[in-house]
């Protein structure tokens, strides 16, 4: 794991796991195994914004044949109690 968090929380309600990745694209959450699309952002607070597969994110490309599983960086402050 790097010193700074590069990635984002899983966007699905009931998960919010820390998912590590370094580029935008499709990823699979290492906790709930659901697909999400990560798009880079120029926000001061986060490097990426993540979207669930059913939300139709802006600029979302077609789903490729193979999708990488994001790095597992463990529970976040938003992960429900008992799901850690």
Notable traits:
84 residues, three-stranded antiparallel beta sheet, globular, mainly beta
In angstroms, what separates the terminal alpha carbons? 18 Å
Helix residue percentage: under 10%
Radius of gyration: 12 Å
| β-strand amount | 25-35%
Q: What profile does the largest beta sheet have?
A: 3 strands, antiparallel
Unreliable spans are: none
Count of distinct strands? 6
Biggest sheet strand line-up: 1-2-6
Helix/strand-derived class?
mainly beta
Mean pLDDT across all amino acids: 85
Provide the number of structural domains.
1
Query: Could you give the order of the helices and strands?
Result: EEEEEE
Please give the count of helices. Answer: 0
Q: Based on CA inertia axes, which overall geometry fits?
A: globular
Structure description:
It contains no helices and six strands. The chain is mainly β and 84 residues long. The protein has one domain. It has a three-stranded antiparallel β-sheet with strand order 1-2-6, with no helix packed on it. The model has no long low-confidence stretch (mean pLDDT 85).
Explain briefly what this protein structure is.
By secondary structure, this protein is mainly β. It has strands spanning 7-9, 18-20, 25-28, 35-40, 48-52, 71-72. A three-stranded antiparallel sheet has the order 1-2-6, with no helix packed on it. The chain has a three-stranded antiparallel sheet with strand order 3-4-5, with no helix packed on it.
